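Hi F.,

I've been meaning to write this up properly since the lab meeting, where we talked about keeping a consistent format for the predictions we share between groups. The idea is simple: the sequence comes first, exactly as it goes in, then the structure tokens exactly as they come out, then a line or two of notes. No screenshots and no reformatting. I'm using this chain as the first example so we have something concrete to point to.
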Amino acid sequence: MGVYAAGDVASWHNPHFGTRMRLEHRMNATEQAIVAAGNLLGDAVPFAPVPYFWTDQYDIKIQAYGIFPPDADLRIVQGDSPDGHFAAAYGRHGRVVGALGWNIARQMRTLRRLVLERTPWTAVTATPALRPATVN
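Output, unedited:
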């Protein structure tokens, strides 16, 4: 191998999701540079982040963790989209691969963990904390 790159130019196989990816995000560039430097010094650690972003648009907070493939299963797991407060989970190949939150920041911690832990997709409906609920 012997080639190391970081930032917007880097494309790599992400073993967490089993797919090739390229991320144009400032935090990715920082995290990637740290791992690349460590690997140059002999760490031999794969770069396997869970991508994320957030944005505040006036009174709307949007958060996303993971990936959102076009062939993913999608399920609203908390709240209600017409109400303006909801969380959605994305599943692919039997695992939770993404989470999207719309004005539901606190609940996104649980969904983020499901993506990080590669939780089976069937657990999305089995987890009481993820059943549709009223948002305060």
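Notes:
Residues 1-49 form one domain.
The helical segments are 26-40, 105-116, 123-126.

If this format works for you, I'll send the rest the same way.

G.
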